[in-house]
Write a structure and sequence with these properties.
Blueprint: E1 8-12, E2 17-22, E3 27-32, E4 39-45, E5 48-52, H1 55-62, E6 72-74, E7 80-87, H2 101-106, H3 115-124, E8 137-139, E9 142-145, E10 151-154, E11 162-168, E12 172-178, E13 194-199, E14 208-211, E15 220-221, H4 228-235, E16 238-246, E17 256-265, E18 288-294
Parallel strand pairs: 7-14
Antiparallel strand pairs: 1-13, 2-12, 3-11, 3-13, 4-5, 4-8, 4-12, 6-7, 7-11, 9-10, 14-15, 16-17, 16-18
Bound molecules: zinc ion.
Residues 40, 98-99, 114-115, 179, 181 line the site of zinc ion.
């Protein structure tokens, strides 16, 4: 990391909201200071705050239900808003609604502070109308599906100091809420402070995800290879498509007959297709899965 000045550096107290404008290319870090704390998050096109983060577009384009390293956060209109460039946890919820007053009321806690009211309070500053529930991106919130496709949640995987790093693709309005949920495992029954920091665009970060060799080990970030300086110069504006093709007449779901990777110029969502043809791909059967992984220069 270089010595460039940090633009914003704040501890957000437990149960409290946060919001700010972030310039294009700047990097936002959200850190779970004490571990096991969910951070509900929303971002909007700064030039058109009616166009906001869409879990649907994000999940469909990447072909994976979890946001992690390499995920691009797309808006309702299909514009790329942010890219995840580092992630030390690898488990963040894309499905659940931010907690709201009714959730707590139904469980016997009327008037409980909640993420939806937190968002409404912050977003009013940017002229964004209040809602009864926000479909947010919930960092560190540990949700998953059981065998009958029921959405479940458990204590977060994040440990003290775990973080995500996101680069703004365009100018943004961002808001978050340190989730105040103390009545279930969402925050391990103990809401705690979070930390947000914004680095200027020139600060370089390598794209990386953390691995723990054993459950108690310190997380280790993946590192650039010795070829990075040369290859990144050639590929920083490229998107990698990986696809696997299954012959449709074969009922064995593991019968992947062909795998490949392509890199093409980064394109807006309307130029991508999650089911269909890529400009220079060979002729493909109808069953096609495409994953999108942007490179970070
Ligand atoms: Zn919440």
């Amino acid at each position: 990391m270089g010595e460039s000045k940090i633009i914003l550096d704040e501890v957000v107290p437990a149960r409290k909201p946060w919001g700010a404008r972030i310039a294009a290319k700047d990097v936002l870090t959200i850190t779970d200071l004490e571990g096991q704390q969910a951070v509900d998050f929303l971002c909007y096109d700064g030039a058109n705050p009616q166009d906001r983060y869409s879990a649907t577009n994000t999940v469909k384009v990447q072909g994976n239900i979890f946001v992690s390293l390499g995920s691009v956060l797309y808006s309702d209109s299909g514009a790329a808003l942010m890219t995840v460039i580092e992630d030390t946890v690898g488990r963040h919820d894309t499905f659940a609604l931010a907690c709201n007053a009714k959730y707590y009321e139904d469980l016997g806690y009327p008037g409980h502070v909640n993420c939806t009211d937190n968002f409404n309070e912050q977003l009013a500053r940017f002229g964004i109308a209040a809602r009864r529930g926000w479909p947010a991106l919930n960092f560190f919130y540990n949700t998953f599906f059981d065998g009958s496709n029921q959405l479940l949640f458990d204590e977060p995987w994040s440990r003290p100091g775990d973080y995500v790093l996101l680069r703004a693709v365009t100018g943004l309005v961002c808001a978050s809420s340190a989730c105040p949920d103390d009545i279930d495992p969402a925050n391990a029954w103990n809401p705690t402070d979070i930390h947000v920091r914004v680095y200027p665009a020139e600060r370089r970060f390598s794209m990386a995800i953390a691995h723990r060799v054993t459950p108690d080990a310190e997380p280790k970030l993946t590192r650039e290879t010795g070829f990075h300086t040369r290859t990144s110069a050639l590929t920083s504006r490229y998107v990698t498509y990986a696809y696997a093709v299954k012959v449709s007449t074969n009922t064995d779901p593991s019968a992947i007959t062909h795998r490949a990777r392509y890199s093409v110029s980064r394109a807006p969502l309307d130029k991508l297709s999650s089911r269909g043809s890529i400009p220079f791909a060979p002729t493909l059967p109808s069953s096609l899965l495409i994953r999108v992984k942007p490179s970070e220069g």
